[in-house]
């Protein structure tokens, strides 16, 4: 490997198993990064040779076609390069510079750099998905990860510059990815789901995702851990794979159409009769068939760890605090003084590896209570996943260490059950009781509570079924706690009738189908909660505000929006309605879109405006010490960016972005 390049402001590295994983599961985020001029590097770990037959899977006669594994891998790689060329330049036939690179001793891979666009680069590791053995069986990549295999063979492609099969060890794969991390110095890494959910509709355990997706992510996390040990704090985003089919689709028609165009290029539907790359007979993956829309993978792009919107809050000393995760560790930013507009941080804290989504709670103006999902390798026991908790110091300048709250499925001792644990949600009631919720293996909700004397009760199931890993908890003005979680066809609500009481399921809330990816709820005064989420398929922002008598409306109010994905941040505006709340979400271009109340109280409705650059996860909002609204995001460069009202008066515009 050559010496590290100077890292640009935004550099995005994708680590995927197969040639179409990023197109299916990470677009449109991928194409936005290319269009915005980010440095984009993608590593394809396996050869993706499948059954070796590059024929439409719906073709009745395909069984008569002899498999050619190297050819199919070659043609899939060609299709991917065509798709990248089109996404970056509009020209599917833009040429690539091809070379062999030894990333670690004894492991050479092929690197492709788009001619005229040196910031676009692809690496093909070509690990055999199923290398044949002398016994007539086929090896699998997960066996290399688990230690059942000492080496895994590579599969050279036709016309390639790495012509000999190599036998690669587990450590060479991890070391190779770590070497690329060191060379590329990405500010954001995108990879897949390390612990996908099971199919909740089956009586037996059936993992929802491809095992190569999971295994590749394990390798990626191992390499990221080494990269972190070298002093690098990187944003990491995990994308859900096949499990998207279980939940309400979260892309609108325009996003799905755009996604289909690039998949059509990848599959070779717009390819010339003769492949201009000259290395394959047919350009593209013909297994996809003539219609990209026939796959449900088209319809969603969702994070495995659904982002939340409560990570900006007013803390001790009247200073705004912001919380995130960089390189698997808690990252903390704080204002230098009340409403100062100046920030210090990030301070990156803690050990272990925590998921990118944090639950942030606390009494108003008091220290923050944080909960996270920690994932760690235990020698001799494989991977364990638990919920961890930490409390901010009273002065707001530091934190206690992570304390394990274990796992609702801890007693089962089943790795499958433990590893599917959902991201936590948290709330503190008026008396200071802390409640931590998460989705359990049975796809219901479990809660663990800390009483006013500091003692923790055991995990308790409060019911539910087929709920998403994307809830939100809110404390009402009465001091009670409510939990909202999207399901398959509606949103679930649990509530208390008195502070400290049990959680009751509300069967009166009937909403439209929520899109996968999160929701938010705010106390809107008068004993009324207002719920915001995106409508499946359209991505329109919907509002459901509770009536004064506690009932819920039969239908929601559509608030529009700019497409996009993820939870909608909401902050209630005094003396206004559900349409006039402060709202922010991630729009179709990956940038923040904000709606603020009009200066005139008689002017109703939303006023969406897009600004800034592409960011990660979801935005957050809070009032600062002066009462002015602040909107915050964490960029693809891992930096905190904040916009603030010029004054705390109603209708005051937002000032410029600062970091």
Question: Do you know the CATH architecture of the domain at 11-296?
Answer: 3-Layer(aba) Sandwich
- Stretches where pLDDT falls below 50 for ≥5 residues? 1-7
The tally of strands reads 37
- Beginning-to-end CA distance, first to last residue: 34 Å
Specify the helix fraction band: 10-25%
**In CATH, what is the class of the domain at 11-296?**
Alpha Beta
Largest sheet: 7 strands, mixed
Overall pLDDT confidence: 94
- What structural category characterises the helix and strand content? alpha+beta
The CATH topology label of the domain at 11-296 is: Rossmann fold
Radius of gyration: 25 Å
Give the strand order of the largest sheet, numbering strands 1, 2, ... along the chain. Answer: 3-4-5-2-1-8-9
Question: In what range is the share of β-strand residues?
Answer: 25-35%
Categorize the overall geometry.
globular
Instruction: Specify the number of helices.
Output: 8
Précis, in short:
The chain has 659 residues and is α+β, with helices and mostly antiparallel strands. Helix content is 14%, strand content 31%. The strands form 9 sheets. It has a 7-stranded mixed beta sheet with strand order 3-4-5-2-1-8-9. Strands 14, 15, 16, 17 and 18 form a 5-stranded antiparallel beta sheet that branches.
Give the helices and strands, then pairings.
Elements: E1 11-16, H1 21-25, H2 29-35, E2 39-46, H3 69-89, E3 96-104, E4 107-114, E5 117-127, H4 141-146, E6 151-153, E7 167-169, H5 170-184, E8 188-192, H6 211-229, E9 235-239, H7 253-266, E10 312-314, E11 320-326, E12 329-335, E13 343-349, E14 353-354, E15 359-361, E16 369-378, E17 382-391, E18 403-404, H8 415-419, E19 425-428, E20 434-439, E21 445-450, E22 460-463, E23 472-475, E24 481-486, E25 491-495, E26 504-505, E27 514-523, E28 529-535, E29 541-545, E30 557-558, E31 569-571, E32 582-586, E33 592-595, E34 608-611, E35 615-623, E36 629-635, E37 640-644
Parallel strand pairs: 1-2, 1-8, 2-5, 8-9
Antiparallel strand pairs: 3-4, 4-5, 6-7, 10-11, 11-12, 12-13, 14-16, 15-16, 16-17, 17-18, 19-20, 20-21, 21-22, 23-24, 24-25, 25-26, 27-28, 28-29, 29-30, 31-32, 32-33, 33-34, 35-36, 36-37
Helix pairs in contact: 3-7, 5-6
């Amino acid at each position: 490997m050559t010496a590290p390049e100077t890292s640009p402001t935004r550099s995005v590295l994708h680590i995927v198993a197969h040639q179409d994983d990023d197109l299916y599961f990470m677009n449109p985020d991928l194409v936005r990064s290319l269009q915005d001029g980010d440095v984009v590097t993608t590593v394809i770990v396996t050869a993706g040779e499948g059954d070796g037959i590059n024929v439409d899977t719906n073709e009745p006669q395909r069984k008569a076609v002899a498999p050619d594994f190297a050819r199919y891998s070659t043609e899939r790689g060609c299709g991917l390069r065509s798709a990248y060329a089109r996404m970056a330049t509009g020209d599917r036939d833009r040429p690539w510079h091809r070379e062999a690179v030894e990333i670690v001793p004894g492991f050479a891979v092929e690197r492709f750099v788009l001619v005229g666009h040196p910031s676009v680069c692809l690496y093909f590791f070509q690990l055999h998905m199923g290398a044949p053995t002398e016994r007539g069986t086929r090896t699998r990549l997960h066996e290399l990860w688990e230690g059942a295999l000492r080496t895994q063979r590579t599969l050279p492609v036709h016309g390639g510059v790495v012509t000999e099969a190599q036998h690669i060890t587990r450590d060479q794969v991890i070391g190779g990815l770590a070497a690329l991390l060191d060379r590329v110095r990405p500010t954001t890494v995108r990879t897949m789901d390390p612990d996908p959910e099971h199919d909740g509709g089956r009586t037996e355990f059936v993992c929802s995702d491809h095992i190569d997706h999971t295994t590749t992510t394990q390798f990626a996390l191992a390499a990221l851990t080494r990269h972190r040990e070298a002093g690098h704090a990187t944003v990491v985003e995990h994308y859900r794979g096949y499990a998207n089919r279980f939940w309400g689709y979260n892309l609108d028609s325009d996003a799905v159409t755009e996604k289909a165009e690039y998949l059509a290029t990848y599959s070779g539907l717009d390819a010339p009769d003769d492949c201009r790359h000259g290395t394959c007979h047919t350009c593209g993956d013909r297994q996809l068939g003539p219609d990209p829309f026939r796959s449900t993978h088209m319809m969603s792009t969702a994070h495995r760890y659904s982002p939340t919107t409560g990570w900006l809050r007013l803390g001790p000393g009247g200073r705004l605090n912001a919380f995130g995760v960089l390189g698997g560790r808690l990252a903390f930013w704080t204002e230098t003084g009340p409403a100062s507009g100046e920030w210090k941080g990030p301070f990156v804290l803690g050990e272990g590896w925590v998921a990118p989504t944090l639950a942030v709670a606390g009494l108003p103006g008091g220290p923050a209570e944080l909960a996270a999902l920690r994932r760690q390798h235990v020698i001799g026991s494989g991977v364990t996943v638990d919920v961890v908790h930490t409390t901010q110091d009273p002065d707001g300048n530091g934190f206690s260490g992570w304390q394990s709250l274990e796992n609702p499925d801890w007693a089962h001792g089943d790795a499958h059950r433990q590893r599917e644990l959902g991201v936590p949600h948290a709330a503190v009631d008026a008396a200071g009781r802390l409640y931590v919720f998460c989705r359990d293996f049975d796809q219901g909700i479990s809660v663990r509570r800390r009483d006013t004397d500091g003692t923790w009760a055991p995990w308790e199931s409060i019911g539910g079924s087929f709920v998403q890993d994307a809830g939100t908890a809110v404390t009402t003005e009465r001091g009670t706690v409510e939990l909202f979680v999207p399901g398959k066809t509606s949103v679930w609500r649990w509530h208390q009738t008195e502070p400290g009481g049990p959680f009751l399921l509300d069967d009166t809330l009937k909403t439209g189908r929520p899109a996968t990816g999160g929701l938010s709820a705010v106390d809107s005064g008068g004993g009324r909660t207002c719920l915001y989420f995106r409508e499946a398929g359209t991505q329109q922002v919907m509002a459901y505000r509770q009536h004064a008598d506690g009932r819920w409306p039969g239908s929601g109010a559509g608030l529009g929006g700019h497409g996009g994905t993820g939870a909608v941040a909401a902050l209630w505006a005094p003396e206004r309605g559900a349409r006039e709340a402060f709202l922010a979400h991630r729009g179709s271009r990956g940038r923040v879109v904000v709606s603020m109340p009009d200066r005139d109280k008689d002017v109703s409705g939303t006023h969406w405006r897009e600004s800034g650059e592409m960011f990660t996860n979801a935005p957050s909002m809070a009032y600062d010490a002066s009462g002015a609204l602040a909107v915050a995001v964490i960029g693809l460069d891992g930096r905190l960016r904040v916009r603030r009202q010029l004054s705390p008066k109603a209708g005051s515009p937002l000032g410029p972005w600062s970091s």
